[in-house]
Design brief:
single chain
Length: about 270
Amino acid sequence: MPVPTLDHSATGYSLRQAYWMAEAAQLAYQPPETIEQTARKWGFDRFRHHETTFRPPFPLEDTQAFTAACDRMVVTAFRGTEPKKIQDWLSDSTTPPWPGPAGTGFVHFGFGEALQSIYPQVRDAISELRDNDQTIWFTGHSLGGALAALAAMRLHFEEPRLLADGVYTFGQPRVCDRTLAKAHDEAFRDRTHRFVNNNDIVPQVPPEPAFHHTEAVHYIDANGKIRDSMTVLGGLADRAKGLTADPFAPASDGVRDHVMNRYLEALRTNAG
């Protein structure tokens, strides 16, 4: 399957753009030298690497991201974490909620603390590298998707002139309460695109009704087809189909479906 070409002048939603945002999310897991070498091949010529530590309810964690720029676009990609780690510190119910951006709603304490540790670096990098009115993009997988979504919200709600042109997340957990989700959907309509792969376990945490997903979702079914809508019954049937795909390990389907390569394979096929 041929790889679609990255369009630096892209605006709006497309599966081709989703594929390249997924590539950037995957690249965020690599060391800085690999990130720069790869991103230069994609046509970017300026970079900033971000790395900090934060303390969720469990042991100290690190947060990593990178910002890459060219004369047409600026992309910030956040690194994710293992499903087990994210489930561990999302399961803690003793921490208070973290205030949402510009005092709008609330987010889970762990997400708020992780973002707070790295957001000043990200904001400063975007301000520095966006010197030609470039488009702004955020992306990430897993925890990285949560941070990408929240960083885009914080940038806009605290500096309204800076509204991201696109936010693409993959296997993102729920990030906020209903108030912030509603404010996001009004501000980011047609700009945020959340991809969920079949039985991926991470988008199912933290639990409702305290936490909510934002509205726009693209669902990858058990056959790898990307659907922009699906009935409740259709979704249940498709998830059941995914669970039976591996008769020897059905319980691990939620973890397998979270792997970033699964998202990339589906996007490459659908965007080709």
